[in-house]
Target: JAM1 protein
Amino acid sequence: VPPGKPLAHVPSSATIGSRAVLRCSEGQGSPPPTFRWYKDGTVLPQDPKSSPTFRNSSYSLDPQTGELIFEPVGGWDTGDYHCEASNNVGSPQKSDVFRME
Model:
């Protein structure tokens, strides 16, 4: 079963230096989908240090659960976030976009 449109749970504001958890969930895909997160339209790499764009960010990303955890949040993490659910059936589905300040 292809994934449906995932739901992104993004805090609208986060305090610099604190922990912020973004969640992506999708209920109908089978096999269960994996998740990718995007910031301002750019996919977040599994390891922020591997990318010049995200090397200032400190986060962990679990493609199985859809959790994106910033610890700590930095000012550069402000942006528009959305997630994408995909399995090997059908096409990937994107969530709505949410802004985190």
